[in-house]
Amino acid sequence: SQIDNRSAHSRVFVNNRLVMTKHFEVYPSSEELQSVQTIISHVEHAFKTVSEQVDGGRNQNALDNEQGEERVLRGLMRVGLVAKGLLLKGDKELELVLLCSNWPTVTLLNRATELLTKQLELISAGTYTVSPCPEEAAIFVKSTKESALTLVINLTSPLVRTEQPTITAEEKATFGQGMISFAAVWDRHGFFFILYMLVILKLTAL
């Protein structure tokens, strides 16, 4: 009947409004999303230069012709909430994974941190503080702006899963259990994530 139809339409309308209200409550604002995109974009851009500098400043043609696996820093990948587009309003910690050709060491971590600090200062002076965290095998990039975002860059390598590292006892002790292994990335993001990473690596390589 017409009354039943009107009642059904009314319920749908109310349900839609509830969904939209809930979506507004949990979904980041356009300003928050822009802040997230900005810090990630700046770091990804900076790491392209960092990768070249870590490789010893070889000329661009040589870098372009090399296989990704020959580079010290192979690629920077978005993972977790950032990769899945599941950020919620108020989320302040973002995550990237830096894939290295060799077993990541404290020496490499500190070198990458130093170079990243300089590049981010060139891109956006006074916007970020960068600090290494050997205990977590990570680099922390914090925004000094109102958004106060923190980007955690976790260093890992396929070798973490397949072989023992050739590093000093001091470096091994410093990393401790903080090393995020390739296996952990597999467990967290699944088979198709790893397939995507390996196939697309050349397109997103540093």
Description of the structure:
A five-stranded mixed β-sheet has the order 1-2-5-4-3. Helix 2 crosses helix 5. With 206 residues, the chain is of the alpha+beta class. The protein is globular, with a radius of gyration of 21 Å. It has eight helices and five strands. The protein has a single domain, classed as Beta Polymerase, domain 2. 55% of the residues lie in helices and 16% in strands.
Helices and strands: which structural class? alpha+beta
Shape assignment: globular
Q: Counting H and I runs of at least 4 residues, what is the number of helices?
A: 8
CATH class descriptor name:
Alpha Beta
The ordered string of helix (H) and strand (E) elements is HHHEHEHEEEHHH
Number of strands: 5
Largest sheet data:
5 strands, mixed
Poorly predicted segments: 65-69, 184-196, 198-205
CATH architecture: 2-Layer Sandwich
Estimated radius of gyration:
21 Å
Strand content: 15-25%
Distance between the termini: 64 Å
Q: What is the count of distinct domains? A: 1
Task: Average the pLDDT over all residues and give the rounded result.
Answer: 73
- CATH H-level superfamily: Beta Polymerase, domain 2
- The CATH topology is what? Beta Polymerase, domain 2
Strand order of the largest sheet: 1-2-5-4-3
Give helix % range. 40-55%
How are the SSEs placed, and which strands pair?
Blueprint: H1 2-26, H2 30-54, H3 60-65, E1 73-78, H4 80-84, E2 93-100, H5 106-123, E3 128-133, E4 138-143, E5 150-156, H6 159-162, H7 169-175, H8 182-204
Parallel strand pairs: 2-5
Antiparallel strand pairs: 1-2, 3-4, 4-5
Helix pairs in contact: 2-5
